[in-house]
């Protein structure tokens, strides 16, 4: 503490002077993120699962799993069985799973005050789920040096019906040789459309509830609605496009090929919607793969209204 004489002259200091206050921390929005955090937060994203391990067993892959996530965090995750059984409904296969909703990523220091580089925590809230309502899942994500990701968490093993530790290996789709953006898949345009509620009642399906996302050369959609017997039906589609039609994500002899805005789109043969090559049957995938969409655009498919809610070119 400083003290002064009667005329204001400084006489001296008692004790240690108080150090100046440190400048306030920068807001999180202006802080510079390390590249590994930017990699975790990069959206839109296209994720392909390469394997899953339960407990401490070796990994395997019995599905064709593709996840499309928009810039705002909406996602559609479809997991087709690699070898569906002929004559058996897709949704009755125990390894089939399809869902959509919102994803959110946080880092350790935001929750615990401790940081662990190259790791994050992801939460996936399911608005629509082929396994039932009210489902969400979460896992710890670990970024690998090659840009791929390991996800670790707990969920129900479809083979045992029990909650178990799982480890999933995620990568990206192969880059197309004709891609103008360089050696990686196209991530634009990104277009998201969702069904427009036909009733204010929460949880009531009525005409249907669905979402469809197109990111670059990939498109996936899911729709849940009541069938003629009043049973809840889950319909899914996956489409892919390549300049020469060689995209291996959905290629098969039974695939449906459609020309949209000069691109050759191929429908995955495991999709359980029925329609011709020129018209949407239940999910407006053909429509969403066209050009020039803007937020608020609407279309009606089989009595269900769909509205564009996100566009990023």
Automatic annotation (TrEMBL):
Signal peptide feature range: none
Record-linked InterPro entries: Hri1, Hri1_N_sf
Annotated spans, Disordered: 1-29
Record Pfam families: HRI1
Bias (Pro residues): 17-27
Protein name per its UniProtKB record: Protein HRI1
Organism: Exophiala mesophila
């Amino acid at each position: 503490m400083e003290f002064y004489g009667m005329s204001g002259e400084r006489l001296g200091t008692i004790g240690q002077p108080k150090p100046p206050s440190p400048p306030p921390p920068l807001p999180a929005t202006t802080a510079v993120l390390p590249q590994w955090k930017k990699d975790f937060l990069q959206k839109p994203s296209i994720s392909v699962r390469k394997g899953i391990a339960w407990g401490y067993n070796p990994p395997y892959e019995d599905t064709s799993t593709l996840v499309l996530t928009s810039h705002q965090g909406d996602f559609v995750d479809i997991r087709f069985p690699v070898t569906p059984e002929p004559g058996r409904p897709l949704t009755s296969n125990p390894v089939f799973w399809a869902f959509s909703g919102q994803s959110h990523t946080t880092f350790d220091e935001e929750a615990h005050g401790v940081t662990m580089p190259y790791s994050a925590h992801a939460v996936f809230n399911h608005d629509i789920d082929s396994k039932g309502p009210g489902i969400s899942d979460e896992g710890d994500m670990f970024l690998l040096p090659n840009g791929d990701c390991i996800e670790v968490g707990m969920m129900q093993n479809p083979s045992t019906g029990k909650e178990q530790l799982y480890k999933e290996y995620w990568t990206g789709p192969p880059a197309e040789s004709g891609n103008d953006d360089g050696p990686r898949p196209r991530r634009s345009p990104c277009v998201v459309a969702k069904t427009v509620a036909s009733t204010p009642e929460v949880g009531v399906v009525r005409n249907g509830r669905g979402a469809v996302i197109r990111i670059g050369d990939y498109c996936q959609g899911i729709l849940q609605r009541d069938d003629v017997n009043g049973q809840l039906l889950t319909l899914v589609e996956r489409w892919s496009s390549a300049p020469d039609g060689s995209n291996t994500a959905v290629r098969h002899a039974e695939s449906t090929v459609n020309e949209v805005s000069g691109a050759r789109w191929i429908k995955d043969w495991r999709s359980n919607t029925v329609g011709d090559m020129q018209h949407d049957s239940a999910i407006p995938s053909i429509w969403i793969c066209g050009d020039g969409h803007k937020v608020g655009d609407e279309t009606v498919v089989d009595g269900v209204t769909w509205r564009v809610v996100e566009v990023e070119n």
